[in-house]
Amino acid sequence: MAASYVKRWLSVEDKVFLVTGGAAGVGAGIVRALLHENARHVAFLDIADREGSALESELITKYGALKAKFIKCDISDDGQLAAAYRQVLDKYRRLDGVINNAAVLTVDERNIKRMVDVNFTATVSSTMKALEIMGVHKGGGGGTIINISSLLALNLGSHLPVYAATKTAVLQFSIAMGAEEAYSESKVRVITVCLGPTDTAILNRSNLDNFDKDQPIASRVDVRQKVESAVSGILKVLEEGKSGSTWIVKNDQIAYDYTETLNKAFSVLSDT
Ligand SMILES: NC(=O)c1ccc[n+]([C@@H]2O[C@H](COP(=O)([O-])OP(=O)(O)OC[C@H]3O[C@@H](n4cnc5c(N)ncnc54)[C@H](O)[C@@H]3O)[C@@H](O)[C@H]2O)c1
After folding, report:
1. Nearest CA to ligand 1 atom 1
2. pLDDT surpasses 50 at 225
3. Which SUPFAM superfamilies does the record cross-reference, listed alphabetically (predicted)?
């Protein structure tokens, strides 16, 4: 029987990464895992000062001062985002991978614009900045961008309409940015990961108190995968994912490539 062969696009070892929303939840898991896999350096951006500083101290104690850097940054503020990228470049003179992971989930109508700004607009801005730095066509050395979406991007449902729409937008944007024509020019893979429900603070009822008093999201989401499962899946995608591909990481299962199914669905939708 022929041995199965998986193309490894990237080894984490000795690479420089930037992770948004890296102070807590899945993002913090990604930061820890990258360092565990011998990344040269991981910079993580977050608004959560206390959690970010605590994680930075933990990682510096474990891996050394040059390995991890917490940068307090509201990614929806373009000036702050640009400064954070500059800080990483000034120090390390290179960037190999970006994980656009930060997001907010709220049903407070006063915060709807913020949800769009953080989940979608800032993901677009960060992707463009990363391409500007890593793109071979811009003088960079190539690299990888992973944009975190959600299973909600693939399901038609009436709950969480704005959040789901931002995640659908992230999916469509990332597929386009990772398409073959774009990749052949930039040599930067752009890949989407759709996460299933995962046991982090984003699902806390306190976020969602006004959502549906009779059936809060906590009771709808009966299966939540562990953060470690989400993180292992994202690392597998980082190593193996083709540019423009879409992966699903859910139910504590191994990450799987959903691109073909999605392409079939899109071809049905395009047949108008
Ligand atoms: N947990 C789930 O069930 C689930 C399911 C599907 C997709 N996702 C996606 O996974 C990703 C990670 O979410 P999580 O579950 O770890 O949530 P989380 O709330 O635990 O972590 C999100 C992090 O982003 C940070 N953040 C929020 N706004 C920011 C801003 N403006 N600038 C910088 N940082 C900011 C938060 O402070 C927090 O540390 C998100 O993109 C989310 O949409 C999560």
Report:
1. 198
2. yes
3. NAD(P)-binding Rossmann-fold domains (SSF51735)
